[in-house]
UniProtKB/TrEMBL annotation:
Gene3D superfamilies: Glutaredoxin. Disulfide bonds join C85-C89. Belongs to the SCO1/2 family. Pfam families: SCO1-SenC. SUPFAM superfamilies: Thioredoxin-like. Cu cation binds at C85, C89, H173. InterPro entries: SCO1/SenC, Thioredoxin-like_sf. GO terms for molecular function: metal ion binding. This is Regulatory protein SenC. Keywords: Copper, Disulfide bond, Metal-binding.
């Protein structure tokens, strides 16, 4: 399934079949900017800007409204997807869950978060069940169309519902995973090809540097 990544302010990146990227790694790194004052420079795979991420208000599995402050209480891996996703989302979220387990083996704690970009079908209960099936610590979030759109825009993600069957439609969406720290905010991102071991190593670097 074709995935498309688009940022209104900085152009568009087309994601090829299976979630691989048409852009080179260097181009993607430059997309995210950078800073000479980066205290986490030794931990990063590439440079990132500080204007990704931020406040959000969404709904958890119990139907309660939560904010980013409620959710991001430790190093957190944030991923935007949807429960009906037939291929990319299950793979990516399972990878994130495995990375969290690898960190736990090192005595480090992190939280995986799954934010649905398909509020039309993804009820709080459905998102909660999806997350719980992947990892006991995974937090599933959804919300109204406006809440989901605001969270997506905050992280500069892209999603678009495809035309087709009203019950079994697909949703094009970006596939980055974002590392967010409670006090520092967004600090790094992970592409689809990053392995659980590589993700755990990089997250551990940030934890040790904090």
């Amino acid at each position: 399934m074709t995935r498309t990544l688009s940022y209104a302010a900085i152009g568009a990146v087309v994601v090829l079949l299976g979630g691989t990227y048409a852009a080179s790694a260097g181009w993607l790194d430059s997309l995210f900017g950078g800073s000479s004052e980066d205290v986490y420079a030794d931990c990063r795979q590439g440079a990132v800007a500080g204007d990704i991420g931020g406040p959000f208000e969404l709904v958890n599995k119990d139907g309660a409204t939560v904010t980013d402050a409620d959710v991001i209480t430790e190093p957190t891996l944030v991923y935007f997807g949807y429960t009906f996703c037939p291929d990319v989302c299950p793979f990516d979220t399972a990878r994130n869950a495995e990375a969290v387990d690898l960190l736990a083996e090192r005595g480090m704690s992190a939280t995986p978060v799954f934010i649905s970009i398909d509020p039309e079908r993804d009820t709080p209960e459905a998102v909660g069940e999806f997350a719980a099936n992947l990892h006991p610590k995974m937090i599933g979030l959804t919300g109204s169309d406006e809440q989901v759109k605001a969270a997506s825009q905050s992280y500069r993600t892209y999603y678009k519902k495809q035309d087709g069957d009203p019950d079994y439609y697909l949703v094009d969406h970006s596939t980055f995973t974002y590392l967010v720290l409670p006090e520092a905010g967004f600090v790094d991102y992970f592409r689809r090809e990053v392995t659980p071991e590589q993700m755990a190593d990089r997250v551990a670097c940030f934890i040790e540097a904090t």
